[in-house]
């Protein structure tokens, strides 16, 4: 593994201090944190509207996590099975969510989902989206 100039200086300093064994650990990049939102596709099928499909998912949002600001190439209809949080849609006031409630996000709207609880949040989502496009796209 080649070291960058700054890393070479650090390596020299560590060796001079007798800490050369720490070099491989310091040279590694930190692992990216696991994503807070995990979607599992349950069903995917064509709908009556040409070029569209329905995608049914089970979703889990980690305790204290955010889905991240994103959009969908179609409408999202989701039902909160358990947990407490909020849906944050650009241009709208945050909406608190509790188990048994549902929400709809229109196609192309930038939004985020936040888990305010200390346990994972579980949702069932139905997306009616354009076929061939990613289910979700990160927002700028």
Summary keywords:
140 residues; mainly beta; three-stranded antiparallel β-sheet; 2 helices; 10 strands; disordered N terminus; Cupin domain-containing protein; Cupin_2
Structure description:
With 140 residues, the protein is mainly beta. The chain has 2 domains: 1-31, no CATH class; 37-138, Jelly Rolls, CATH 2.60.120.10. It has helices at 5-16, 23-27; strands at 37-46, 52-61, 70-71, 74-82, 85-89, 95-97, 102-105, 111-115, 121-130, 137-138. It is globular, with a radius of gyration of 22 Å. Mean pLDDT is 85; it is low at 1-15 and 19-27. Keywords: Signal. Residues 1-27 form the signal peptide.
Mean pLDDT: 85
- Note the total helix count: 2
Q: Give the overall silhouette.
A: globular
Number of strands: 10
The major beta sheet can be summarized as: 5 strands, antiparallel
How many individual domains? 2
Numbering strands along the chain, what is their spatial order in the largest sheet?
A: 1-2-9-4-7
Question: Architecture of the largest domain in CATH?
Answer: Sandwich
What structural category arises from helix and sheet content? mainly beta
Kindly identify the CATH topology of the largest domain.
Answer: Jelly Rolls
């Amino acid at each position: 593994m080649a070291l960058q100039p700054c890393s070479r200086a650090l390596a020299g300093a560590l060796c001079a201090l007798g800490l050369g064994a720490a070099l491989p650990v310091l040279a590694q990049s930190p692992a990216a944190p696991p994503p807070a939102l995990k979607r599992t596709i349950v069903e995917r099928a064509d709908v009556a509207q040409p070029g569209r499909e329905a995608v049914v998912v089970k979703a889990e949002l980690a305790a204290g996590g955010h889905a991240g600001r994103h959009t969908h190439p179609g409408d999202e209809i989701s039902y909160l099975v358990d947990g407490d949080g909020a849906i944050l849609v650009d241009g709208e006031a945050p909406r608190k969510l509790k188990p048994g409630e549902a929400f709809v996000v229109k196609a192309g709207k930038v939004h985020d989902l936040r888990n305010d609880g200390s346990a994972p949040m579980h949702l069932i989502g139905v997306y009616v989206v354009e076929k061939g496009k990613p289910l979700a796209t990160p927002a700028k």
